[in-house]
Amino acid sequence: MEVLSIFLILLTALLIPGITGMTKAKIAGRKMPSVFQPIKDIIRLFKKGAIYSTSTSFIYKVAPLVYLSSVSVSILFLSVGSKISLISFHGDFLLFAYLLAIGKFFMIISAMDTGSSFEGMGANREALYSMLVEPAFFIIIASLALFTDYTSLNELFSNMHISSNFSYVIGIAASYVLLNTAMTENSRMPVDDPKTHLELTMIHEVMILDNSGFDLAIIHISSWLKFSIYGTLISKFIIVTTLPFYIQAVYFIIIQMILAIVIGFLESFRARNKMEKNPQWIIMLSAIAIVAFLSTLIISQKIILN
Amino acid sequence: MIDIFIILYSMTLIYFALAERVSKYVILLFIQGVLLFCVLFFSLYKIEIFDFIFILLETILVKAIILPWFMNKVRRQNQLKRENDTYIPVFYSIIIVVICLLVSFFLSSKLQDTQIHSKYFTVAFASVIFGIYFIIIHRNIFSHVVGYLIIENGIFLISLALGSKMPMMVNLAVLLDVLMGVLVLGIFVNRIGNTFESVEIGHLTQLKD
Amino acid sequence: MIILYFSIAFILASLVFFFKNQTVNRIMSGLFLLSQIGFNFYSISNIGKYDSIYYKFDALGGLFSIVLSILSLATFYHSYLYFQRHEFSKKQESAYYSALIMLIASMMSANYAENIALLWVSIEATTLFVSLLIFHERTKDALEAAWKYLFISSVGVAIAFMGILFFSMAPGINGLSTLSLNNLIMNAKDINPLWLKIAFLLVLTGFSAKMGIFPLHTVTVDAHTVAPPPISAFISTSLMNVGFLGIFRIFTIIAKTSTLYWAQNVLLIVGIISITMSAIQILRTKHYKRMFAFSSLEHMGIVALGLAAGGIGYYAAILHLVFHSFVKASLFYQIGQVHSIYKSYYFKDTGKYFKFYSLGGLAFLLCFVCITAIPPSGLFISEFLIFKALFIQNRIIVAILALVLLTVILYVFGKNTLHLLYADKPENVDLNNVTINKFETLSQFVLLGLVIYLGISPPIFFTDLINSAISILK
């Protein structure tokens, strides 16, 4: 039955970009594309051949595959609702976070591998923003670990709902931080505009400027999977574990849809930050995560304050 | 319940470090006033009922309505748009805000005493330190007044943390004094804006040897 | 009774403010002076009694109130002469007088307040009125000084309030009376010493903006330089006394506890740093009003040293404050006259004052002798006692350092004063059409004579007041 949760995550991964696109089109007053439009784009890309530049090395060919495989393996650490994940051991959230980081690392060095100055610039910025947003994720998980005394992702979430008063507070803070982390890691607004055509202002798009065909398709799929992963994490804060599984599954799908719509809203209504303001904005996320951590310390009375 | 408001208050401190537009400062002051009102509302167990209603009304009126409205008026009269170039870039200010919070957290866990409600004390002390830091890094006298109001909010929270026996009448007096002070400060900001054609403190350097 | 006094002051101030008429100003000021002196007599005759729950006519407050009344007489007289000499609009003049009346009333309230919260409120009120007075001349410098004074004073007083909050955790009577001085002194031993230390530091920092010692002394220096001469004289004396009173009340609370020694060390450091900074700045400045404003910083540093010394130092500190008030006031009045003659505040534009106006020159010379504590000035006696107390307490290095710095200051004052009095007049100064009011120097001679008389043979009444003021510290 655990395979069912993996199946759900993959299913919603395919649907999220479609719903986001539909939301953005509706808000902008355009005619909505179909939900399967991104899948059709991917199929089109699969049919094309890839072109490799002569100035690149094997890294450029290998990187998209590494990216996809690392993201896919990290899915195995998650589960929907009250199910147990396929892989789970003490401290597995570290492996989870660094699997995602390995994928990103390979993308960065493949961008630098092409020798183009634009791609190097994008790689530079991408590395900085990932570095700044990394503490946010870890501190949120650390406050959870402090609260529940477990260190495996499974047990963290399953024990979190015992004291429900606190889980509201941490749930709101964690959702906010994780949502913005998802937007940052996937290079969406307000950090990066996916629709921009000016290379000087791109961050992630410019890194994949030279990829084509099969590689580009894989990179897109990985990005969708990452959205779905973060959505799963957020849903674990929200779904109450005492309900029967099919209701949890329905909740899960609804939450992912809502997440996609929210992303569409945020993309439509926010302007992209000035480039100098990006590091400030991202480190604010880490600051809020630290505040949530301190409040965990106070509320859970690990440090006794009266 | 109070915990949520205190957490939100500390988040407003972080947003003060992040924001660059002057109108955002006024909005954040308003939010802080509302949060303080909510904190006061939920600390029912301390005071008798008549003083309590009076203090509630007075807090919400002064801190959340009159002061932000007055600051907004001053801002519009001087046409302040953006804070130009603080002495320390915003990136490091955010780190410093977090350090303030951590330092006050450790301080309050060292000052363990039955009479201090450490929940309030942490955020209050961080607010005072951050208010002083805010005054130091900004070049604009309007932002200095905003920093002064942050300090006053922090002192209000400290009085909630420490004053287990003191009635809120003292807070009343303090609030009135602060109101008078800010009114006079606002008048001076207008005057300086008119006389010096700008509100930067780079212009206020005549008095020296 | 004190409520009656406040209501009279408030009514008179509002009348002055609304009727922008010169004769109304004079009549109301005269009435206010009468009520001020009458109230002072009443309070002196009722020393030790409580009044209106939160006020007490204690000895130290009474002493400072006598000083305040004498100085307010002189201030009103000199303000009258100042307005005769300069042209101001009716609105400005009435704003000046009403702010001055309210300022004196709030200073009386601060002198007699027994509850620390009320003391704090009065001091905050004085800040507001003083900044309005500093701004009176409406020049750019005045605006800058008034803004800095108001802002930093407000921040400082807010910090002092934080310190006062720590006292509210004291055991004893519940409610507002927890902060009454009596209650706090009785229960001081039961308060956690850490709170006492924190509270003392915060209050010292906060009220240093009022008293004019390190760390927040810079605003007082700027304010005294730029304010109109009668006001500079007033605020560099009585307002510093009020600041001292704030710090002194907290000092009396911790006087019987074990933190006394620590607090005296802190005051020692603060005092010696103040004197050092004052000496450094006086060497550099060429603006004579600013130079004498720095001299206030130096004298307040000496007072802090007196408090730190203990024993006879307490008596000498209060004596020093009283004498300093009179001497500094007459000095600033004389500077007002000098400025009206030479029209400039820089030393290089002055000269041959003694020949031009001998009476003023004589007054200036006497002021110089008194402020640098040369005998027969009363300040000599108080400084001598303070240094004696420092040597008794074995703080030899500090005392020697302070003496050296005082010598430096004396040198600079002497050099500049003699330049003002005897040096050749620079060419561009035109002294022909200045009118001198012969009676203006009368107030200064009275004040200086008072200082010398009180120094050489103080009346029993005076010494008794001071002794009962410091009896709490023994």
Topology:
The complex is a heterotrimer of chains A (306), B (209) and C (474).
Chain A: H1 2-28, H2 37-47, H3 58-75, H4 92-113, H5 117-148, H6 153-160, H7 164-185, H8 214-238, H9 245-269, H10 277-299
Chain B: H1 2-18, H2 22-42, H3 49-78, H4 90-110, H5 118-137, H6 141-162, H7 169-196
Helix pairs in contact in B: 1-2, 1-4, 1-5, 2-3, 2-6, 3-7, 4-5, 5-6, 6-7
Chain C: H1 2-18, H2 22-45, E1 50-51, E2 55-56, H3 59-85, H4 90-112, H5 116-134, H6 140-167, H7 181-186, H8 193-211, H9 218-226, H10 229-253, H11 260-284, H12 288-309, H13 312-342, H14 353-356, H15 358-371, H16 378-392, H17 396-422, H18 440-456, H19 460-470
Antiparallel strand pairs in C: 1-2
Structural commentary:
The complex is a heterotrimer of chains A (306), B (209) and C (474). Chain A contains 10 helices and no strands. Chain A has one domain (2-299). Chain A is globular, with a radius of gyration of 19 Å. Chain A is 70% helix and 0% strand. The model of chain A has no long low-confidence stretch (mean pLDDT 85). By secondary structure, chain B is mostly helical. Chain B has one domain (2-202). Chain B is built from 7 helices and no strands. Chain B starts with a helix and ends in a 13-residue tail after the last helix. The mean pLDDT of chain B is 81. Chain C is 77% helix and 1% strand. Chain C has a two-stranded antiparallel ribbon with strand order 1-2. Chain C has 2 domains: 1-258, no CATH class; 261-474, no CATH class. Chain C starts with a helix and ends with a helix. The B-C interface holds B 111, 113, 115-116, 128, 132, 135, 141, 144-145, 148, 151-152, 155, 158-159, 162-167, 169-170, 173-174, 177, 180-181, 184-185, 188, 191-192, 195-196, 204, 206-207, 209 and C 117, 121, 124-125, 127-128, 131-132, 135, 140-141, 143-148, 150-151, 154-155, 158, 161-162, 165-166, 168-169, 174-176, 178-179, 192, 194, 222, 225-226, 281, 284-287, 290.
